[in-house]
Write a structure and sequence with these properties.
- This protein is α+β, with helices and mostly antiparallel strands.
- Helices cover 32% and strands 25% of the residues.
- It is built from 3 helices and 5 strands, in the order E-E-E-H-E-H-E-H.
- The strands form 2 sheets. Strands 1-2-3 form a 3-stranded antiparallel beta sheet, with no helix packed on it. A two-stranded parallel sheet has the order 4-5.
- Helix 2 (53-61) packs across helix 3 (83-94).
- The radius of gyration is 15 Å and the shape is globular.
- The two termini are 24 Å apart.
């Protein structure tokens, strides 16, 4: 993704900033958590909030049955890509299934 993404640390809290909007980022979660959930849950597993095709591929590799291309309500994140902008690249990376 292109743009002016800046990551800084403020009093131990990692913050991402796009276009002047600062948003806390939880670095405690990782793809390993998706793998653990997949091992515990045999039902459908869907990961929401992906905008990068590489993240979509990683979600599938970790066992996700589906992904939701989403910017989690981008009205509050003016610098975030619109899902429709990145959808073709995500589909090209992981396919239509």
């Amino acid at each position: 993704m292109s743009g002016s993404l800046k990551v800084s640390s403020t009093a131990g809290l990692i913050v991402t900033s796009r276009g002047g909007v600062k948003v806390p980022k939880n670095e405690a979660q990782s793809w390993k958590h998706i793998e653990i959930l997949r091992g515990m849950w045999k039902g459908p597993l869907v990961v929401k909030g992906l905008l990068d095709p590489r993240d979509a591929r990683r979600a599938v590799e970790c066992g996700a049955d589906g992904i939701v291309v989403s910017n989690h309500g981008g009205r509050t994140l003016d610098g975030a890509a619109a899902p429709m902008q990145v959808l073709p690249a995500v589909v090209a990376e992981v396919g239509r299934d």
